[in-house]
Design goal:
Chain lengths: 316, 316
């Protein structure tokens, strides 16, 4: 197999991209406890919350209180999603270590989601990036629908290059490529990411996957083969909407970390501690979560533990 | 990305590896109907049943009746699992187009599962293979636990080579490598399959995966990169035991076929027809099944269909 990165950074999105989809209110102190537990597993970056308007995402209306209440472990980056100038001001005031800006690569999704075209969104991000730069807060640029848009299909590589060029022009050096709707396949991921890497060798790209159609771990492998070394995930595969069949969450962090470890790739994450958090999630969110590791345990944990004789004749 | 096979053969295991795990009796005529529907999707090989002792797998005690009742579409191979001489005689009498022999690569699993070592199992298969050869019925050799054994861990490549040499010595040219317990990762799959392919260039290897730890589609990608062009799957991800949390089924055929098609790899399978069968399964087996495609639809189906405004601000 082609050379793979020896180490990968896993960005935990559960408290933001996961919790924002939950209809049942998660008390602020529970959110704080989950973020603290996640930080103690060794995850290097945690997206803690989103500074959106409280009416847009009521679940995250306690963004300031969560940011104020969490421990700040040295070495852990506590990141926040920021949709606009007002959000950036709030995130910086709340001492976010990093802000994650976001736009949709396709106009139709951008219009449906944020009532502006991609070009308008990029222009409106200009003063936001300047503010972050003035205040010394690093920013990453997100590219929703980059690997599949439910309205337009698969954006051509030129469209992604155009957005990255604009982001780079604003001074951003870290860019997240997202398969927002879980539509991407490994050939597409390999193609788009290798083109972006070749065109922008100085940009640090990360990959944001949803496992809607069971291609997410295959897409991780394809991206690793391009040299991508930063991946978003959500503990328990949070992020699907329990009331919307068809919607599916982020790639499950513990399942991804397990695969990376089994492949000999370091993450610095204490997988057992992460699984312990995933195990508590159903009680917190009020519905089952999508976690193979909770259900089956690590590959290496089952060895020797299985009871004799429980397999059926001919089972393969 | 490395060159991938242009066409892949998908072997449907649902009626055997899936149904054998179901506790609730599935009426013979329903089994026949499912096999017939699967054959009409264009699946080239269907493992219809297993000729084991009725007491070992009561669900498949109607093996003869199912084989006698199914349509025989031209071009479709109706295969049966056969554990021993008696099973081979029954399968041949029932006009199986092909028989699938099986053993465990690790002694401890072989002893637990079949009460004999791997070497003993190989010796006992010798007259079985001879019978098939005499009767002109092609046989494939299965290698359970080849990519992970719950007792012994990951068998070394030398052990796999030893088993394949013995199978080849018996005259078999088609061999199925199985990740019986869903423990394998893409690096292991790539390593073991590339060694086997290099050592046995004339053997046609197939891959049998269980998605226990969400590595199955990544393992498909790793195997495609080695040139593997035949994969087992089960419609609806059947094969997990609904009463044993932790047990998980075969890789879901429709999810795998969807990924292959999205990657530009042909299978000859009518995916919509396959999804329609998966959609009926919960009623047949009496519990939900594991099918992303049933839940979310094909990537290309959602394009343009999504209602405007249903995304949340900042969702990525």
């Amino acid at each position: 197999m082609q050379a793979l990165p020896k180490r990968v950074e896993v960005v935990e999105m559960g408290p933001r991209d996961g919790f924002q989809m939950e209809h049942r209110w998660i008390p602020t102190e529970v959110k704080i406890e989950v973020v603290n537990a996640l930080a103690r597993t060794g995850l290097p970056i945690i997206q803690v919350t989103s500074f959106v308007h409280p009416k847009a995402v009521p679940q995250l209306r306690d963004a300031e209180q969560v940011m104020a209440g969490i421990e700040r472990l040295p070495g852990v980056i506590y990141e926040a999603l920021v949709p606009n100038m007002r959000g950036a001001e709030r995130a910086i005031a709340a001492r976010a270590d990093k802000v994650n800006l976001m736009l949709s690569v396709t106009d139709s999704h951008s219009l449906a989601n944020a009532n502006r075209t991609t070009d308008q969104a990029l222009r409106e991000l200009e003063p936001v990036v300047r503010l972050c730069q003035d205040r010394g807060v690093p920013a990453t640029g997100g590219m929703a629908t980059a690997l599949g848009c439910p309205f337009e299909g698969f954006p051509p590589a030129e469209r992604l290059i155009w957005v990255v060029e604009r982001y780079v022009g604003l001074g951003l050096g870290e860019i997240g490529v997202a398969d927002t709707a879980g539509m991407a396949n490994p050939v597409l991921v390999h193609d788009r990411l290798s083109r972006l890497r070749d065109r922008f060798p100085d940009v640090h790209f990360s990959l944001h996957l949803h496992d809607t159609r069971r291609m997410a771990t295959a897409n991780v492998l394809a991206a690793l083969q391009v040299g991508i070394d930063r991946f978003d995930g959500a503990v328990g595969g949070l992020g699907g909407c329990p009331y919307a069949p068809g919607a599916t969450g982020n790639i499950t962090t513990e399942d991804m970390v397990h695969m990376l470890h089994e492949m000999g790739i370091e993450t610095g994450v204490d997988l057992d501690a992460l699984i312990a958090i995933a195990r508590r999630l159903p009680e917190i969110v009020g519905h089952p979560v999508e976690s193979c590791l909770v259900r089956a345990g690590k590959s290496r944990d089952v060895i020797g533990r299985r009871k004799q004789g429980q397999d059926k004749v001919g089972a393969a």
